[in-house]
From TrEMBL:
It is found in: Cytoplasm. CDD domains: Anticodon_Ia_Val. Catalyzes the attachment of valine to tRNA(Val). As ValRS can inadvertently accommodate and process structurally similar amino acids such as threonine, to avoid such errors, it has a 'posttransfer' editing activity that hydrolyzes mischarged Thr-tRNA(Val) in a tRNA-dependent manner. Residues 670-811 form the Methionyl/Valyl/Leucyl/Isoleucyl-tRNA synthetase anticodon-binding domain. This is Valine--tRNA ligase. It comes from Curtobacterium oceanosedimentum. A motif ('KMSKS' region) lies at residues 587-591. Keywords: Aminoacyl-tRNA synthetase, ATP-binding, Cytoplasm, Ligase, Nucleotide-binding, Protein biosynthesis. It catalyses: tRNA(Val) + L-valine + ATP = L-valyl-tRNA(Val) + AMP + diphosphate.
Length: 863
């Protein structure tokens, strides 16, 4: 049923009007019953992390996805557009700790009546010492509670924004279905030999007490200092001086390394030196990764100072003498390789201290012994951090779970490169980030995390007769038993009272990295294995929309899991949005404290205005946002208001009886121009260039309103001189055809304003209407430039009246328009419309070098 046309249309409140209607009518519902695979357009929508609040960057990128979804729906596709919520992971745990003032202690018993000390995260709970220890189960329950609250707020914001998501197709990455899917994929990886466990050097965050994967690293520029340390040659030669920024790792030294081509150290290779203070004998070795121009050209290899140390340790088969514990402090157990009394005494002084305090102890001792050579040189250098951490990473030896990713398998790496070539990146230059990541992988994907709120790794370990776990004989469940939690459920074939006793079992306590679940979003959304018919309809997906900074994590890991499981690329296209930057061109992020929460912006300016701002930026392009002066959002609001008013004006003209054809040159030309706009906007959307589609449509719309409406309104009213039934009908037909097509061209960008207008004359939604085509227009012709030429002449006439300080309604006795011959011929074809809108009694034309009004006489006044 159509909606009555209001006397005074407004964009205010349209979100509250149309959101419930779309939900009730199922406007965006995926109709799987009538869908065939070739008619489906499936979107692997990013599941936002459900911790805290969404920021303006989410509005930006999710709008880009929605534009494409709405376009494809109007093109006749059955659009599968789900929404997921990424619940598990460190951000959720940290938010729960701060919000409720608690921390997890797995040793504590469950308290069914537990009430958190407070709610709201008032800052009192930011330090672990101020947080109340609670059981793992109590902690997870709080995680569940808070993520549900956050998800409800996120959904409200996305609905307000007008995302055409099918909310019946939503999922959570921590619910039973998602846990079962993630565990099923892991078990299949394990069965095929793609998942394995290893005891190896691991990047470790001392704050979160968890392992960190290569994809989660972030370099931060930090102050440091080079210290010259004198190693003593065992053959009696001169001391060998090395430069290091981490003298506190001297007790962990296992070798010195120099480049094999470095002439300075040729006589040292194969010999040994003794470390200062600790007097431990270590070899001097050659390796191509040693940098001749860095420091002294010879490096101290410690277990482990950085990732290069790990490479040297592995490739040179060096011993592991790690001294840093999981808490970031020097371990208290006395190293067996330090035999001197002086060295043992010094190590005891370092034990238990942070790396910074231990460094001071060691530097003071080196200074006293005279083995600190030269001045300490301060520098700034890149230091690796966990992307969510605030302390430098350490490297510790731990037992972890890995999934192969091509780092040590050239055939798999090459296959993943080819999969990247099969995916069309938009913009294409983003492809290099994928290629560089695949080519630069240095280790397999570490997926285990020492956290609590996540998908449990579904394995148990048998305990031998001494009660020691047999790690190389893991016990696994059947797929039918999934999901499982080995920390609280007994292993298959065992009872709970056998947990932790000799001959019994031990449950795996680690959970999977959040990307190990998020990398399966195509499977989670498509209900892999649970609903094979749906999965076959949507997979592989048509598009993965996402941000550029997670190409190395989310995009790559999804491609990897799809390759391992199905031997295909998971999507045909990848659309990559840019970042939002503040007025100083700095990327907006929660960590920098410069993010803008979008709900107030939406409420103040309206969803259509905010969507217009987002749509104005191409994929892969960063956009600046100034909340104090959102100019582009104001332009979008003005456009939405103009759509309402222009449509109301057009619909005010009664269609003359028997009107069937567009005959007048100006009407023919405006529809020809519109046909060109339709073709350009269609090609732009097909090429993932929504900004171009908006640009050409908006430019034509303003020309239509400012020029064409003005030029033909007298004829459309039937009041123009020499107006006939046919000329009036031609104008009204062209006006209605144009506004009908323009509403559909603008519908992806301004869904609320266009739906409001569409409802005045239609009983169905504009968002399920067919995308406009040139073939549907009531006349077919090539654009001649007539509208532009006449519009320029109209501007000249209006300018002449303004210069004469006369009202635009002032009649003109005589006007002469000069123009080059080709333009003059065009304008003369629309002389009647130009004379009518300009109120010109006698309009004539003459040749001129450029289009201009050369003479004008106003009634009762000479200009």
């Amino acid at each position: 049923m159509t909606k009555p046309m209001p006397d005074k249309p407004t964009v205010d409140g349209l979100e509250d009007v149309w959101g419930p209607v779309w939900e009730q009518d199922g406007t965006y519902r995926f109709d799987r019953d009538s869908a065939t695979k070739d008619a489906v357009y499936s979107i692997d929508t990013p599941p936002p992390t459900a911790s805290g609040s969404l920021h303006i960057g989410h509005v930006f990128s999710y709008t880009h996805t929605d534009l494409k979804a709405r376009y494809e729906r109007m093109r006749g596709k059955h659009v599968f557009y789900p929404m997921g919520w990424d619940d598990n992971g460190l951000p959720t745990e940290r938010r729960v700790q701060n919000y409720y003032g608690v921390r997890c202690d797995p040793q504590l018993p469950y308290d069914p009546a537990f009430v958190p000390p407070f709610e709201g995260g008032d800052g009192k709970s930011s330090k672990a010492g101020d947080q109340l220890p609670i059981s793992r189960r109590n902690f997870i329950e709080l995680c569940e509670r808070l993520t549900v609250q956050d998800e409800q707020q996120f959904e409200h914001l996305f609905r307000t924004l007008g995302l055409s998501v099918d909310w019946t197709q939503s999922y959570r990455t921590i619910d039973d279905t998602s846990r079962a899917s993630a565990q099923r994929a892991f078990l299949r990886n394990l069965e095929r030999g793609e998942a394995y466990q290893a005891d190896a050097p691991t990047l470790w965050d001392v704050t979160f007490r968890t392992a960190v994967a290569q994809a989660e690293l972030e370099d931060k520029e930090m102050p440091g200092a080079y210290h010259g340390l004198a190693f003593h040659r065992t053959d009696g030669g001169d001391d060998v001086v090395i430069q290091t920024t981490r003298p506190e790792l001297l007790p962990a030294c296992v070798a010195l390394v120099a480049h094999p081509d470095d002439e300075r150290f040729q006589d040292l290779f194969g010999k040994t030196v003794r470390s200062p203070l600790f007097d431990v004998e270590v070899p001097v070795l050659a390796h191509h990764l040693a940098q001749q121009d860095k420091g002294a050209g010879i490096a101290m290899v410690c277990t482990f100072g950085d990732t290069t140390d790990v490479v040297w340790w592995r490739e040179l088969q060096l011993p592991n003498r790690a001294i840093i514990g999981f808490d970031g402090r020097v371990r208290s157990d006395e190293p067996a390789w330090i035999e001197s009394a002086r060295g043992r005494e010094l190590y005891a002084e370092m034990a238990g201290k942070t790396v910074f305090s231990a460094k001071k102890v060691l530097v003071d001792a080196l200074t006293e012994s005279g083995e600190l050579v030269g001045d300490v040189k301060t520098i700034n250098h890149p230091v690796k951090f966990f992307e969510k951490g605030d302390k430098p990473l350490e490297i510790v030896s731990t037992r972890q779970w890995y999934i192969v990713n091509g780092a040590r398998d050239e055939q798999l790496k090459e296959t993943l490169r080819k999969r990247g070539e099969e995916i069309a990146f938009h913009p294409d230059f983003m492809r290099v980030r994928y290629d560089n990541w695949v080519g630069g992988l240095s280790g397999d994907w570490l997926i285990s995390r020492q956290r609590f709120f996540g998908v449990p790794i579904p394995v148990w370990y048998p305990l031998d007769s001494d009660g020691n776990p047999v790690f190389d004989q893991p016990i696994v469940p059947t797929e039918a038993q999934l999901p499982v939690d080995p920390a609280s459920e007994p292993a298959p074939g065992y009872t709970e009272d056998q947990r932790g006793v000799a001959g019994g079992f031990q449950g795996e306590l680690d959970v999977m990295d959040t990307w190990a679940t998020s990398s399966l979003t195509p499977q989670l959304a498509g209900k892999w294995e649970a609903d094979p018919a749906l999965y076959d309809l949507v997979f592989p997906y048509d598009v993965r929309p996402q941000a550029q900074d997670i190409i190395r994590t989310w995009l790559f890991t999804t491609a990897l899991r799809s390759q391992l499981e199905a031997d295909v690329a998971p999507w045909k296209h990848a659309s990559i949005s840019g970042f939002i930057v503040d007025p100083d061109r700095k990327k907006m992020s929660k960590s920098k404290g410069n993010v803008v929460t979008p709900l107030s912006i939406l409420e103040q300016h309206g969803a259509d205005a905010v969507r217009y701002w987002a749509a104005s930026s191409k994929l892969g392009t960063d956009a600046a946002f100034d909340p104090q002066n959102p100019k582009q959002i104001k332009v979008g609001r003005r456009l939405a208001i103009k759509v309402l008013n222009a449509a109301k004006f057009v619909y005010g003209f009664e269609l003359p009886s028997g009107a069937t054809s567009v005959t007048e040159p100006l009407d023919v030309d405006v529809l020809a121009e519109l046909g060109s706009v339709i073709e350009q906007a269609t090609a732009a959307f097909d090429g993932f260039d929504h900004a171009r589609a908006l640009e050409v449509t908006e430019r034509f719309f303003w020309t239509f309103c400012d020029d064409y409406l003005e030029l033909v309104k007298e004829r459309a009213y039937g009041t123009a001189p020499d107006a006939t039934h046919e000329t009036q009908a031609s104008a009204v037909l062209a006006l209605r055809a144009a506004i009908d097509a323009l509403l559909r061209l603008l519908a992806p960008f301004l869904p609320f304003a266009t739906e409001e207008v569409w409802a005045w004359t239609h009983d169905t939604s504009v968002h399920t209407a067919a995308w406009p085509t040139v073939a549907e227009l009531p006349t077919r012709a090539e654009p001649t430039g007539l509208l532009a030429a006449v519009g320029q002449a109209l501007i000249g006439i209006r300018g002449a009246k303004t210069a004469a300080k006369a009202s635009q309604k002032t009649p003109v006795t005589r006007a002469v328009v000069a123009a080059p011959a080709d333009q003059r011929a065009l304008i003369e074809r629309a002389a009647v419309d130009l004379a009518a809108v300009g109120r010109i009694e006698n309009l004539s034309f003459t040749d001129g070098e450029e289009l201009a009004v050369t003479e004008i006489e106003l009634a009762e006044q000479q200009a």
